[in-house]
Structures are given as structure tokens and as C-alpha cells.
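A further point concerns the way the authors explain their paired sequence and structure data. Nothing conveys this as quickly as seeing an actual entry. An entry of this sort, consisting of the sequence and the corresponding C-alpha cells, reads as follows:
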Amino acid sequence: MVNPKSEIRNPKSATGSLLYCSAMTTDPLPRPLARWDGLHLVLDLQRVERHLNHLLAGADSIRDLRLGGAGDAVAAEATVVWKGMTARVSIELAEIRLHHRHLGFRMRRLRALGGLPVPRAAVEHALKALESPILTVYSGQGIVVIDLRRWLPAELAVRVVTVQAMARSLHLWFGAGELVEVPARGRNLLPADTGSD
């Protein structure tokens, strides 16, 4: 018969008193495998830029991407081809957040052709024309949300609460998060069109 109580010697006690702990747990909810109260992550924008340009190598509409810091935003500049016209376009991505495995940001300071302002509605229309299943554009607000559930497992709860961009580095402050369980090997992640977060 297993004793439901096990003895643990208290190392801080001068008398070596015994502590008793139950061998059975009564927690109503399963505890996560790992959790954290906050995290400060620094990304090298030059290396991020290199990886993004590698991913864009097969795209005809965007090329030669350059990234830089802009205080609370990331400044992006790229050569854009749209309706047969080629132009150098710059934009700032502000209010960057990550929540429920979705990355969101607000577009601001859109410029083209050496600094001429670009209507935000034109960029929103161009993004919607891509018809990407992972991209949601909120017209009139300049807000773009990217569904990352294809890459971030459901067992992971992580969110970005603050962002600061320096000249060549991006600082991300994460809020409290947790890893409920190690993701199962070989299983498919949730598709982008499901209703769960």
C-alpha cells in the first residue's frame, strides 16, 4: 500500500523537523510545463533583413527590403512593383503586438518616389489584393494582422507588449506566458482558417 504522505527532511530547520507533502495533487487545472513572467528579446535587424530578402527572392512584387529602427516602430523600405510600375516605397510599422498567435501592427508614414506621401487606402487595397489566407487588413485604420498559428503551436501562449527599435536592433518585451505541453511530433498545426485562437 502506498502512503499518501511522504516525509521530506527540512534542510533549514536546526532540529531537522519533518515536512509532510501529499503524494496526490488536487489541482483542478493542469499546470503548464513551463511559464515565465516576462522576457526581453533583442533581434538583429540586419540578419532579420537578410532572412526576409531570402524569403522574398521568388516574389515579383517586392524586393530589396531594408529595415531600420524608428523609436517605437520598425522602418521598412523596399522596391515595389504594382500594375507595371516600379517604385521605392518606405513605411513604418508601429504598435507591433503578438497575442493569441497573431502578429499585428499599424502602418504609418507611407512614402514613395523620394518622399511623396502615399494614401494608406492604396496600400490597404494592395495588401488585400494578395488574397493571403494569413493576412487580415482593417480598412481605414491601417492595421494589419498576420495569423501565425501555422508556425506557433497551440500549446504556446506568448505575447509581445512593448517594442523599441534602435538603429540596427529590435527590442521585444514579452508579457507573462506559458508552454502547456511539448508539441506532439509529426502532428499538423491548426490551419489558418479555424475558429480557435
Observations:
- The mean pLDDT is 81.
- The chain is about 10% helix and 45% strand.
- Helices lie at 45-55, 120-129.
